[in-house]
């Protein structure tokens, strides 16, 4: 749960207080998807930054990991996160950065959320990142209903399609699908306290 950067301009103090109250439920395992989106800029950048920081503060107070939306704002996102080093866990959702950004994330102990875009034939940069990043820093994600893997590209994404992402990671890393499944499941369990 959280306020997506597209909606940052709509946030008033009671919005965040209401979310804080809802997040106290033990079934809530993370705060997000929050962050910065400098591609669409549906909310002004100053509003996005302000709401992002406020939500990181609350997540830290509640000891919840965060799911980070980062679209064309890699450096800015990492700069803000530098002020919140005590967070329980961080996932860079739908990772789209380069190897340098990935290495900085790994060095900070973050997880890279890898989904359907990994299976796109022309996404060589992400394939290269996944080959080099330790499996201990990867979690699988769907971004449902968006970004379905290649066999279903353009259709509604479904959790069942994660098998295509898992297969691609296994192929890129030269590992068995079972090994990738076990590792990414363990990562998710650790991250979300499951």
From TrEMBL:
Coiled-coil region: none
GO cellular component terms attached to this protein's record: cytosol
Record-listed E.C. numbers: 3.1.21.-
PROSITE patterns hit by this protein: TATD_3
InterPro entries with a match to the protein in the record: DNase_TatD-rel_CS, Metal_Hydrolase, TatD-like, TatD/YcfH-like
UniProt GO MF annotations: DNA nuclease activity; hydrolase activity, acting on ester bonds; metal ion binding
Protein name: Uncharacterized deoxyribonuclease YabD
Origin organism lineage: Bacteria, Bacillati, Bacillota, Clostridia, Thermoanaerobacterales
């Amino acid at each position: 749960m959280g306020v997506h950067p597209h909606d940052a301009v709509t946030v008033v103090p009671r919005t965040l207080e209401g979310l804080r109250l809802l997040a106290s439920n033990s079934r809530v395992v993370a705060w997000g998807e929050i962050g910065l989106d400098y591609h669409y800029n549906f909310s002004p950048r100053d509003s996005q930054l302000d709401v992002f920081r406020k939500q990181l503060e609350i997540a830290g107070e509640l000891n919840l990991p965060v799911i980070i939306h980062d679209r064309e704002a890699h450096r800015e996102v990492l700069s803000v996160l530098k002020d919140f080093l005590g967070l329980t866990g961080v996932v860079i959702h739908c990772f789209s950065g380069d190897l340098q950004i990935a290495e900085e994330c790994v060095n900070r102990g973050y997880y890279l959320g890898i989904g359907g875009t990994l299976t796109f034939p022309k996404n060589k940069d992400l394939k290269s990142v996944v080959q080099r990043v330790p499996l201990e820093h990867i979690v699988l994600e769907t971004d449902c209903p968006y970004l379905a893997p290649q066999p279903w590209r353009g259709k509604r994404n479904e959790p069942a399609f994660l098998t295509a992402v898992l297969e691609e990671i296994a192929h890129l890393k030269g590992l068995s699908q079972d090994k990738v499944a076990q590792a990414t499941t363990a990562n998710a369990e650790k991250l979300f306290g499951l």
